[in-house]
Structures are given as structure tokens and as C-alpha cells.
């Protein structure tokens, strides 16, 4: 049944969706979110619960998902920098949950990590999140309990923080990109956390979606300039998108403004949890369509969606020539020369060299670890709970330089909570523009350096955002004290 659009023999079905005319519901665009400025008012309610999604059109099967407020993705939150955000989580799931505000540099107590920053929110219970939003940009939210399952079933949404002076574009659009592992009936495959996914590339899906909608095209008008905010909410899939006939310009990564640049080889690479803000000038011809292809996995390229041009005459004769430069966020600049250095070694997984590691203060061989569902280690230590003793303690206010080595056979998108870091070097060479990021992708064998000022006090998770890797041990706690 689930064969509406089978692509390139991989069984991968493209059900990417365009935004026109189905523009997702927007909450409180430009500060209109009823409660944001007034702490006495009613907060936004976020209600994770079972729901249904139709990935295959009105004639296809529907899929039981878990989602916020009855839709996938959950509500698209818009707020302005500096405003106070308030959300009441009401847990209607059959499991504990929390909400983590990915990429936002907010106080520790609001970070949503159960057992570390707050107690888990039990079924039927509530939790109020309230924080001031420090930075403009493209962020997102998701649970931090059983992520492989909860996020894998559809719990996530976009969190957009508007600039005071947004760049001049004709449209500002969010693309939430995900993949799903579905069975022949269109139901979510129940194989969460199986040993194969834990020890290899994580839970890769067989169906790709854009904003959870059921069409495969994104409509453009010739001549218009669009800001595309891409968010990869997949458990494990890395996307590398190629825009046929177009030259998108990257203006922000992981929410933070970057020097505007064309992506390397024209490929917009989005690891799990990664974001990219693109400026896309619609330089195509009215009535034509152009492919957006995903080419990350060599044997599994597929057409992700079509850029479909309307017949309307071009909005303007030639593209706008004003470059788009976003105003910087107030992140302290690291002083690399005065940095405290730390070595971080990622090890384990299938085809890796890890023989043993420390689990709960006990040295265990890799077979015993695997029997306990643990196959990855950071500096020889397997994470087994979120309130682990800190692996590293950072002096507050000082620049930290993490030198991270991927001694495994798989790529890992490594994410740090509570901070953004500059991506300084890769394999000994400096990274152009040293972009600010919160999730950095390491290819097998990579050695990279990231630098940041540890200015946010608390115990912060550092983990692989392939959720199966995190759950199988690839996580640590860094304390800023
Ligand atoms: Cu998206 Cu621990 O994070
Ligand atoms: Cu995070
Ligand atoms: Cu990983």
C-alpha cells in the first residue's frame, strides 16, 4: 500500500510536502503569542499525546503517531528575541516525558533533561517551562525521555526566534524534515532501540516527510526571495540536499548567523538536530519544476521534493542583489589562545575497536556491554543515566576548547546543551568562517576542535544526536561551575 512514490529502488517513499497552500498553523507570529510578554497570562499549552497523521494523502492509510497538540510537526512557535516564553507541558502520553528546547541558551532548570535538570513529567502531570529567549534564530523542541521512541513517533516542533530587524525576503518558511520507519500497512515500525540500530547508523527510516504534509512539491513564484529554515528532526538520518538549478546561500547554521556562503559542493548538509537558514532566490522559469535531491547516502539518493514554479509572471526582473546578513546574537567570543583544552574520544559501535569500557564504575567487555544495550563510550565511559558524574568541569567564564576524535566507523552529530560553540578546525585545517553551532557532525576518523566560553552555569549534556547512539551510551555531562 505504501508505494505511492517509491524512489530509486531503495523503497524510500518521498512524501515531502510543499507549504502552499497548506501553511502550517503559526502561533503568535511576531510576538502575538498571547502570553509571551506577560508572566501572568496563560502559557502556551503543549500536549503530547497519541494522534494520527496522513502521510499518504486522503486516499492512503493514516499512521498512529505521538505528537504535540494533534499534529506533526507540533505547533510552530514564533517569539521575539528577549521575550519571555512560557509553555505548560501536559503529559497525555503513556510514558514520562519532558521538553528540551534544542539550541536555546537558557537556564539549566528549563533545559528539560529528566533526572538532571528536572524530574520526569509523569503521565497526566504538568510542567511549566518559562525562560527569556536570548538569541534570534531557528531552534526546535523535542522530548528528552526515550528520544528514540518519542521523537521517532513524531514529537517535535519548530521554535523560531525573530530578529528585531528581519532580512528583506518575500517569504519566511520553515521546513521540518524527518524520516519514518513504516511497515507495509503504513504503521510505525515498533523496532525502537533494537541492537542493530543501536550499534550501527541508528534508526533510519523508509519514508521522508517535509512538515508532515502529503504533497511532494514546494511552490515558488519566479523572482521571489525565500528564507528557508531547515530543521532535521530525524532520529538518525543525515540529509545532504542538492537544489537543481538554484544556488541557495547559507545565512545561519544551528540558529546562529554565519557569514553568508554557498554550501560546499552545493550540498546543504543537515545532521540530525542540525538547522540551516537558506536564502533561496527563485531564479527558475515559470511553469517549470526543479528537483531537490538527497544525496548523502551514496546508494540511496532520492528525490526529496520538487520546486514547482507557478505560471505567474516573475515577481521581479532580476533577483534582489542585497546580500542577507543577519545581526549577531550576544554570544561571548571564545579566546582560543587562553583556552583550557580537553580531549574527547568517541569509541565503540559495530566495526569499531572498543574492547571494554566503564559502565556504572565497572569495567565490562564489549560483549557484556552489548548485552546491556550499551555499545558506545566517551573517554572510555558508557553513559547509562542522565545524571552521571560530570566528565569535565569547566571554570565559569573561561574559554574551553574541545578536541573531539571520532574513533568509530560511523558519523556522529555531537550536541552540547546550554551553549553554542565555534567550529574551529577539522583534521588540522581551519573551518571557513568558524561557524557557531550546537550540533557538529564528525565523519568516521574525524578530529575536530570546537571552542566556546562556558558561561552558563549547570550540568549540561553532551551527546550524539543519533538518538540510538545516545541511548546506547554516547553521552556525557559537562559541569560549568
Ligand atoms: Cu536536541 Cu539533548 O538534544
Ligand atoms: Cu539540546
Ligand atoms: Cu552517534
Biggest sheet overview: 8 strands, mixed
What is the name of the CATH architecture of the largest domain?
Sandwich
Number of domains: 3
Query: The CATH topology of the largest domain is what?
Result: Immunoglobulin-like
What does this structure look like?
The chain is mainly beta. The chain has three domains: 26-162, Cupredoxins -  blue copper proteins (Immunoglobulin-like, Sandwich); 171-309, Sandwich (Immunoglobulin-like); 336-480, Sandwich (Immunoglobulin-like). It contains four helices and 38 strands. The strands form eight sheets. An eight-stranded mixed β-sheet has the order 1-2-14-13-16-21-18-19, with no helix packed on it. Strands 24, 27, 30, 32, 33, 34 and 36 form a seven-stranded mixed β-sheet that branches. Strand 22 and strand 23 (302-309) form a beta hairpin. It binds CU-O-CU linkage and copper (II) ion (2 copies).
In short:
The protein is mostly beta strands and 481 residues long.
What's the layout of helices and strands?
Layout: E1 6-7, E2 12-15, E3 26-27, E4 44-46, E5 48-53, E6 63-68, E7 76-80, E8 84-90, E9 100-102, E10 126-132, E11 137-142, H1 147-150, E12 157-162, E13 171-180, H2 195-199, E14 207-210, E15 217-220, E16 225-232, E17 239-243, E18 249-253, E19 256-261, E20 267-270, E21 275-281, E22 289-294, E23 302-309, E24 340-348, E25 356-359, E26 362-365, H3 366-371, E27 376-378, E28 381-382, E29 392-394, E30 399-407, E31 412-416, E32 421-426, E33 429-430, E34 436-437, E35 439-442, E36 447-453, E37 458-464, H4 467-471, E38 475-480
Parallel strand pairs: 2-14, 3-7, 4-8, 7-12, 13-16, 15-23, 24-30, 25-28, 29-38
Antiparallel strand pairs: 1-2, 5-6, 8-10, 9-11, 11-12, 13-14, 16-21, 17-20, 17-22, 18-19, 18-21, 22-23, 24-27, 25-26, 30-36, 31-35, 31-37, 32-33, 32-34, 32-36, 37-38
Amino acid at each position: 500500500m505504501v508505494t505511492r512514490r517509491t524512489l530509486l529502488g531503495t523503497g524510500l517513499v518521498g512524501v515531502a510536502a510543499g507549504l502552499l497552500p497548506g501553511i502550517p498553523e503559526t502561533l503568535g507570529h511576531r510576538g502575538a503569542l498571547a502570553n509571551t510578554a506577560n508572566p501572568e497570562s496563560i502559557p502556551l499549552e503543549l500536549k503530547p499525546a497519541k494522534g494520527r497523521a496522513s502521510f499518504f494523502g486522503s486516499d492512503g492509510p493514516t499512521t498512529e503517531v505521538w505528537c504535540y497538540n494533534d499534529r506533526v510537526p507540533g505547533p510552530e512557535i514564533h517569539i521575539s528575541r528577549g521575550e519571555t516564553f512560557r509553555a505548560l507541558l501536559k503529559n497525555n502520553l503513556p510514558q514520562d516525558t519532558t521538553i528540551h528546547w534544542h539550541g536555546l541558551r537558557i537556564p539549566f532548570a528549563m533545559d528539560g533533561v529528566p533526572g538532571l535538570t528536572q524530574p520526569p513529567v509523569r503521565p497526566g502531570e504538568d510542567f511549566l517551562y518559562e525562560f527569556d529567549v536570548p538569541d534570534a534564530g531557528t531552534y526546535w523542541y523535542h522530548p528528552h525521555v526515550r528520544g528514540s521512541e518519542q521523537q521517532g513517533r513524531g514529537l517535535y516542533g519548530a521554535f523560531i526566534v525573530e530578529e528585531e530587524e528581519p532580512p528583506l525576503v518575500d517569504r519566511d518558511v520553515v521546513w521540518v524534515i524527518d524520516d519514518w520507519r513504516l511497515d507495509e500497512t503504513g504503521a510505525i515500525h515498533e523496532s525502537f532501540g533494537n541492537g542493530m540500530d543501536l550499534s550501527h547508523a541508528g534508526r533510519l527510516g523508509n519514508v521522508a516527510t517535509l512538515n508532515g504534509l502529503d504533497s511532494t512539491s514546494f511552490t515558488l513564484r519566479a523572482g521571489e526571495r525565500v528564507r528557508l529554515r531547515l530543521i532535521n528532526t530525524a532520529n538518525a538520518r543525515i540529509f545532504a540536499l542538492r537544489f537543481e538549478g538554484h544556488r541557495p546561500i547559507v545565512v545561519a547554521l544551528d540558529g546562529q548567523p554565519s557569514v553568508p556562503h554557498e554550501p560546499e559542493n552545493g550540498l546543504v548538509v543537515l545532521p540530525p538536530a542540525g538547522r540551516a537558514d537558506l536564502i533561496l532566490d527563485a531564479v527558475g522559469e515559470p511553469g517549470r519544476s526543479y528537483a531537490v535531491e538527497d544525496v548523502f547516502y551514496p546508494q540511496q539518493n532520492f528525490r526529496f521534493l520538487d520546486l514547482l514554479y507557478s505560471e505567474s509572471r516573475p515577481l521581479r526582473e532580476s533577483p534582489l542583489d542585497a546580500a542577507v546578513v543577519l545581526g549577531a546574537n550576544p554570544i561571548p567570543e571564545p579566546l582560543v589562545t587562553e583556552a583550557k583544552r580537553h580531549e574527547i574520544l568517541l569509541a565503540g559501535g559495530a566495526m569499531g575497536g572498543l574492547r571494554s569500557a566503564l559502565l556504572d564504575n565497572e569495567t565490562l567487555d564489549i560483549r557484556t556491554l552489548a548485552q546491556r544495550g550499551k555499545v558506545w563510550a566517551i573517554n572510555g565511559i558508557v553513559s547509562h543515566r542522565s545524571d552521571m558524574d560530570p566528565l569535565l568541569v569547566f571554570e565559569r567564564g573561561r574559554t574551553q576548547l574541545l578536541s573531539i576524535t571520532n574513533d568509530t566507523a560511523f558519523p556522529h552529530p555531537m550536541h552540547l546543551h546550554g551553549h553554542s560553540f565555534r567550529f574551529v578546525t577539522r583534521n588540522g585545517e581551519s573551518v571557513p568562517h568558524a561557524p557557531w553551532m550546537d550540533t557538529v557532525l564528525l565523519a568516521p576518523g574525524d578530529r575536530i576542535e570546537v571552542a566556546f566560553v562556558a558561561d552558563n552555569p549547570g550540568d549540561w549534556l553532551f551527546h550524539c544526536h543519533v538518538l540510538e547512539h545516545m541511548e546506547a551510551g554516547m553521552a556525557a555531562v559537562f559541569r560549568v561551575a
